[in-house]
Design goal:
Blueprint (H helix, E strand, L loop, with lengths): L1 H23 L4 H12 L4 H12 L3 H17 L3 H25 L19 H19 L4 H24 L5 H28 L1
Length: 204
């Protein structure tokens, strides 16, 4: 299992490198435009309001607050390892996101409809949502709750991750390639931390 995770991590890293090269070369221009135009076919006042609500679930304020609550809850449940892990994975993901943004320095779309002050690639909201909710899915999978509830909770969280990414495209805050890149990085971080968790259990 550990070897499979190492292969997955290496594959994700190569995928991100390839994705970044295509982004820098302008190869995503047509795809980004097509996906943006397709998403905007469903544009309306109601959808716009919904997207503003959905994108909040990937915002710094919400993610930090939720992570803090989960951290305290896990400490209360005497699950210190999980508490420190969820905080660490989010902090690490945030640092990685900011470093990549500063290296790539991709401008935001010209049609952006929200206020943002950072660079575009990869999507920070998407990475934050995918990292935190993805790690919660990981904790759920390791819990002793009934399988049907695992599927329900995990499905809702996975859908929320996708919707946050979609909201960033709809609001013009990011290109599709930004969101896709963010998903890849978050997946890499999550699989890496699950691998570390496996080795921690061996040492224990």
């Amino acid at each position: 299992m550990k070897n499979k995770k190492i292969i997955i991590i290496c594959s994700l890293i190569l995928m991100f490198i390839a994705n970044t090269i295509v982004v820098l070369s302008g190869g995503y221009q047509d795809i980004d435009t097509i996906i943006r135009n397709t998403v905007m076919l469903y544009s309306s006042e109601t959808v716009s309001k919904a997207m503003h609500v959905i994108t909040f679930f990937g915002s710094t304020y919400w993610i930090v607050a939720l992570c803090a609550l989960i951290f305290v809850f896990l400490l209360f449940k005497k699950k210190r390892s999980n508490a420190y892990s969820i905080a660490s994975v989010l902090i690490f993901s945030t640092v990685v996101n900011n470093v990549i943004k500063l290296i790539i320095r991709r401008p935001r779309p010209e049609y952006i409809s929200v206020v943002e002050h950072s660079f575009s690639y990869p999507s920070g909201h998407t990475m934050a949502a995918a990292t935190l909710y993805g790690f919660i899915i990981y904790l759920i999978s390791k819990s002793d709750i009934l399988k049907k509830y695992k599927l329900i909770y995990s499905g809702v969280l996975a859908l929320l991750i996708i919707l946050v990414g979609l909201s960033r495209i709809y609001l013009g805050a990011h290109f599709f390639s930004d969101v896709f890149g963010g998903m890849i990085v978050s997946a890499t971080v999550l699989v890496s931390f699950s691998l570390i968790d496996d080795y921690k259990k061996i040492l224990e």
